[in-house]
Amino acid sequence: MLLWVLDPAGRDATILNQALNGDITDLRTATEVICSRTPSQLQIMKQTYRARFGCYLEHDITERTYGDHQKILLAYLGVPRNEGPEVDPSAVTNDARELYRAGEKRVGTDERAFIRIFTESSRAHLVSIANAYQHMYARSLEKTLKSETTGNFQFGLLTILRCADTPAKYFAKVLHKAMKGLGTSNAALIRVAVTRTEVDMKYIKAEYHNKYKGSLAEAIHSETSGNYRTFLLSLVGRDR
């Protein structure tokens, strides 16, 4: 309820502040929120973070992260990216080739190339790079990321790539993992339900149904109870 009464940027800023400055630092949640948002959403969210918490988001990230993970988060927050559908085919081919040279073609990984391309590319450009990479090298870019990178750095790259392609599919998987097996990750369930309801929830529900052959509303109903269940279902929407 405390998240829902805020505006979208306020919700993201609050989740990030809790993830970075709470009793337990949750870098995966912070990475998910940053790497799944559009450039315009990030700009408003950075301003809101500063206004609400009296410090720059970049400062808190610098305090809590290190290495390539820190570099990609700061670059993703700071580099302006086009949000349109325009793509330059020659630039796509060059970037796909550069990623291959920076990863699979050499011993070790040139993380700087991955950081540059993933933080400077529009979503449309990155999707085109992934398609070109598959065509040129008969291997998915996602598999390359999994073999060439590790930890939270890898998680950030994968989040950027998956959300460039289909954000709804990405969040359907987050929700499924939150409710799979024994117990429920209420933090993830609340985070996605509250922040995506006004963005793409109907598409998330469709992706969830396609992937897991069941209803998202029914899964939430079976994993929650009481007013909590009622409120989540009012956000997500019951199946007609």
From TrEMBL:
GO terms for cellular component: cytoplasm; plasma membrane. Pfam families: Annexin (PF00191). InterPro entries: Annexin, Annexin_repeat, Annexin_sf. GO terms for molecular function: calcium ion binding; calcium-dependent phospholipid binding; phosphatidylserine binding. The keyword Transmembrane does not apply. GO terms for biological process: response to cold; response to heat; response to salt stress; response to water deprivation. Keywords: Annexin, Calcium, Calcium/phospholipid-binding, Repeat. SUPFAM superfamilies: Annexin. It comes from the Eukaryota. This is Annexin.
